[in-house]
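Exercise 4. Each item below gives a protein and its sequence. For each, produce the structure-token representation.

Item: Glycoside hydrolase family 15 protein (Rhodocytophaga aerolata).
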Amino acid sequence: MQPTQPDGKQLETSTNTAYQPIENYGIIGDLNTVALVGLNGSIDFLCLPNFDSPTIFAALLDKHKGGYFQIHPLQEDVKLKQLYLPDTNVLLTRFLARDGVGELTDFMPVEELYPCKELIRRITTVRGKLTFQMNCCPRFNYARSAHITEQVSAYEIIFTSTDPAPIRIRLKSTVPIQLQDTDGYAQFTLDTGQTADFLLEQILPEYPTTTHLEAFVTKSLYENINYWKDWVAQSTYQGRWMEIINRSALVLKLMTSHKYGSMVAAPTFGLPEEIGGVRNWDYRYTWIRDASFTIYAFIRLGYTKEAREFMCWVEKQCKDIGSAGHLNLMYTIAGQEPLEEQELTHLEGYKNSQPVRIGNEAYTQIQLDIYGELLDSVYLYDKYVEPISYDFWRELSQQVDWVCQNWHLEDEGIWEVRGGKKEFLYSRLLCWVAIDRGIKIGMNHSYPLPEHWQTERDKIFHSIHTDYWNESLQAFMQYKGATTVDAATLLMPLLRFISPKDPKWLSTLQVIEQRLVSDSLVYRYRTEQGIDGLTGGEGTFSMCTFWYVECLSRAGQLDKARLFFEKMLGYANHVGLYAEQLGMQGEHLGNFPQAFTHLGLISSALNLNDQLDNARNTKIKE
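Answer:
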């Protein structure tokens, strides 16, 4: 057995010396965590066993120290292609060399089928004869902890971290593997039709390892393919852009926890909103806001099981918070408060973007909008999936009462600003939504309703129209007293607060276009105005672009909406995934992939499809 130093050795290989662009990755997952697989065949990010567990591979955040698991051909001038098997989360990476073609199949057996924590890689020579190299270089606990390696046999290596609560992982293969320093290494040649299998799994006493690796890989591969195809087949959508909608749904499903029913905003942390900047956050938590919007997307597509499991998770949280007004804006996937924000100073960050953060200090903030997002998702669930229980209603009623008493407060808002609290328009809008949906749920069940709910809802309505309307600019402002606009305002018609064709809204949309839209891309706000209290800038916010498209389609500007939607589809990466933001050269920025972006895509696509169908039917009748 050999120990490493806590930060590991310098991890330099001929194909892993530079950062892959964020958009160069596909993802695979088991419904409790995901791995990012680069075009070069390298897994550069994996938290194990859960989304919010420490990393064992993090070369995406430090190519020298982070750790990776790569399989690649040794031939020169290899072209790289990557795709998903249709309607699955099984990822194929193809290596196109002059003297052969190799195909790497990556997947993680889903938790519903296999309770173990496993990652499977099968490399095949499709044509010709190729020599491959495998490097498995884990770095435990965000590359902070040493590990011990044990060569069990010519086909098996065990890595054990030296933490107080150590994690043990096993690497098994159908070709001989060996230790190179303290990492797994193999070099092997495959003729046409030959394969080599690699299994990386967490060692758990209750789950013994498989003894027939090749047969297990083949069996689990077909079961995995069938699982995802069966899941996609449950979708009720049959309109335009079905392939990209299905891919976005598959991405959202990968970000749900089978164990808890919760959803992460993104499965990564520390990826920068600006290269070299400081806006590098941890998104591996369940935001009430993001998850609630995701439920809307699942319900629209007919995935009621996911909506039901999330509602069970929410109901548990409403009981856990104890009293009204204590709803946190985010939780761990297990339903606890996130860890304190920390900086991993030993990691250089993606393309030297520091600091790399884990935990998220924003969980201490007050964000009034989360009540509206939660109540809206419950309202949709109650209406389209199944009625909620009376006990759950009583818990929610306490939250509505609290909103009635506190909607006028300042908060940090949807964008979690760190420059001081304001009376944000979006927060006030979602307080209106919270009370409005509470009233609607109660009326649907004929529950007795407090008289002051409607009174407070109407007060908020009038406040937004008077306190946030700037007569000279002819637009609704970002916060009370501001002269700036905010892309979050785009949700006003989407949440049915105002008609999408109301003159006040159309003039607001025009001001947003002038100030925040660059071609078809939308900034959430202008960072140079200092509202968020942070230095540096950021890219355009992809979710806001999809909101913008939906506003255009609802306003009847269908040609413009379709053009901008199609343009935005062109910014997806090679397998249909989106990061949080886009730079001016189309580069992906921020955590990847982001649930908010993909659910925004689904919502805008569904609405645009409906509007186009309505316009076509109207034309036919004429």
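Check: The two ends are 80 Å apart (CA to CA).
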